[in-house]
Amino acid sequence: MSHFIDVILPLPLERFFAYSITPAEADYIQPGMRVAVPFGKSKIYTGIVDRVHQEEPVAYEVRDIEFIVDDTPIVTQDQLKLWRWIASYYVCSVGQVMRAALPKSLMLESETIVLKNEQSNHDEDELDDKEFLILEALENRNALKVQEVMDIVDRKSVLPLLRDMLDKNYILLKEEVYNTYKPKLEKYIYLHEHYRDEERLKNLLDDMTRAHQQRNAVMTLFMLKTGNKDVTKKALMERAQVTSSVIKALVDKEIFIEVEKAVDRVLDERMDGEDLYELNQDQAVAMTQIKASFEEDKVTLLHGVTSSGKTEIYVRLIKEILEKGKQALYLLPEIALTTQLIGRLKFFFKHQVLVFHSKYSLNERLEVWQHIIDAKEPYVIIGARSAVLLPFQNLRLIIVDEEHETSFKQQDPAPRYHARDTAIVLAKVKSARVLLGSATPSIESYYNATTGKYSLVELKRRFKNIKMPEINMIDLKVKHHKKRMKGHFSDTLIEHMHEAFADNKQVILFQNRRGFAPILECETCGNAPQCPNCDVSLTYHQYKNQLRCHYCGYHTYIPKECPTCSSTALDTKGFGTEQVEQEFMELFPDHKIARMDLDTTRGKNSYEKLIAKVDTGAVDCLVGTQMITKGLDFRNVDLVGVMNSDSMLNFPDFRSHERCFQLLTQVAGRAGRTENRGKVLIQTYNPDHMILQQVSTYDYSTFFREQLEDRYQFKYPPYHRLIRITFKHRDYNFTQESAQWFVNALNQIPHGVQVLGPEFPAVARIRNKYLTHVVVKIGKQHEVNKIKGYIVKVRRSFEAIKQYRSVRCNVDVDAY
Ligand code: ADP
Ligand code: ZN
Ligand code: ZN
């Protein structure tokens, strides 16, 4: 009887490939283990075993595996289930899901190794210079890495050369597989057993009176040891103020023993957490309602105004889970923005907090993975989108905070999954509870709460009953007309800022654009520098003295004169955070400002440092992009100024009004969180815009009703599902033509749904590729899975057509 395994490969393949294994291997291998397998001509991949079986594949010749990597599964059965759901719902391959889920350090790397072909008997005269150099090097050494070959022949592309030499039988190529994970090692110092006897130690110290430093080191180690903790070499050197040569001398004399041990990168030290706060009346009621809803096994939406204490409720729910020895997942839109929250959770849960961080190194991520799957402690795992793909054990609770945030949806590459929606499926697989939380729920979730699919729990008042901030509009038309503007600041805003500063309060300024100005324009001919790779104008960055493309990263220096007409009269249009910062410094020379946007938060700890500056009062004002709107809890901010709300209102997208409502409500929520009522000033040319009216009166229900009506009328979610198919190619016409072929082919099928496009989006070229969209709108009366099946079928035909090979075709289910 032959044995086989189905292996998931990290490739966009529609099916799994089977490999043959021995009966002994069949006894040993479990689904979820890694195996190294050959694929194609000479590639070796790490794959995950999906299934062990005895069904011989008929369509292709089965190959053997190279080797088994693990002795226990590193992926759980439940994960495999979830991967399959994601692949089928979001129309991609399980391999693509696997690639998104596994930390890269779990995927073994393989590297091509060049060996001499001993069978070859060639004349030296046949060889050209490069071949000679390579073979000569192989005489001296048995194997060369491709990188080394590059160095020898001094050029970048050596693969054609190697392939040629392979054809001539001069060399052999081999894939070597290696592991990239490196444990973090730390050196520890122990006293030699001999001196653990008090008498001997005393004698030793007496003998050491002249070796002053060594004596000092021994004494310090003895002292540090009293807590019965292991002492690192680093700590000992620091405390005893000695160099490593002193320690080495003691090791040589066999007084000290040095041991190198792998240490944990991601867990805090074991410690008792602080007691939780008492819930107030409103919170306690909400808590009871949430639990009742959990009893009914329902997804629960917590709609609580900003600063109502939603986080305190999450903390309490998490505590109960940890006390039962189970795991909890806390999903956040962007992990970079969560410094404060991590601090809050670690305050209560210490070593039970695991963070899955996009800025973590691969090694750190792997350790988080291991801790979760080993489950030696109950953990709460905090993470952004991809944390939903971790190998949970005993997961009982998932909190999706700021559930309305669009960054929960992955755009590129596949799987284009929504972490909130995936979390709800994960919870089903795990029999866990789900709590969605937001001050501004998404239309979709709130709709589900009104239909009874979810239950709704509300917190309508701020903690301590502080009133919601007062929100006022400032009409920029009037202000400009009356000449009451200084740069981009109206007199009203300036006045209120002065008042806040006089009160020793802080101010937050929101402008949803980074850089100094989005456009640099020639006043004479109107020319504005464009990105050579994308259809957008370049943003003027004053600090870097550059023009930058926010789509592809292209940058160049600022021209002294117009490249078209040579005029030197260049002016900027629009404004970004840098300009607000500069104007602030001119208007308030005695006050300090910090700026928080993508440009100032690139480093690993830059975000933490900025927050600390605000927290400690080192700055009086914080200006930033949407980054500052989320989740920040500053005690001393009284005033929030929105520099210009109009660009957010005029975006050509069915969610733009929703997004604007959410952003403004969230940023307003940063004001007046701890004692006094806060104030918000919104500068706008459209003070009567219904969205601004709804924001300023905190009228979520009117906002919801009106948006829902629009969604119904124009066939958008939650009434219709959208699948967006994007086509990308270097040639404008070809992009459109190939998309049109797809639409025509799809419409050959009597699917009955609306297919729109192909249509070029507002920015139709990015990184030198044109893109065009086809949108499929699927109503409640249609069978979604059938329609997806049609799309997959047409995509398969599309990809089989030779001339369309160069066209990228991406399917995005529930596109944003
Ligand atoms: P939200 O998450 O709804 O915006 P938070 O949980 O951040 O609100 O609460 C706002 C502030 O009020 C925080 O500083 C928080 O520590 C405090 N707070 C909320 N509830 C309590 C409570 N029950 N006891 C003490 N402080 C609380
Ligand atoms: Zn010009
Ligand atoms: Zn660009």
From TrEMBL:
One of its GO terms (biological process) is DNA replication initiation. It catalyses: Couples ATP hydrolysis with the unwinding of duplex DNA by translocating in the 3'-5' direction; ATP + H2O = ADP + phosphate + H(+). GO terms for molecular function: 3'-5' DNA helicase activity; ATP binding; ATP hydrolysis activity; DNA binding; zinc ion binding. Binds 2 zinc ions per subunit. Zn(2+) 1 binds at residues 522, 525, 562, 565. One of its GO terms (cellular component) is primosome complex. InterPro entries: DEAD/DEAH_box_helicase_dom, Helicase_ATP-bd, Helicase_C-like, P-loop_NTPase, PriA, PriA_3primeBD, PriA_3primeBD_sf, PriA_C. CDD domains: DEXHc_priA (cd17929), SF2_C_priA (cd18804). Its cofactor is Zn(2+). Pfam families: DEAD, Helicase_C, PriA_3primeBD, PriA_C, Zn_ribbon_PriA. Its EC number is 5.6.2.4. Initiates the restart of stalled replication forks, which reloads the replicative helicase on sites other than the origin of replication. Recognizes and binds to abandoned replication forks and remodels them to uncover a helicase loading site. Promotes assembly of the primosome at these replication forks. HAMAP family: PriA. This is Replication restart protein PriA. It comes from Nonlabens spongiae.
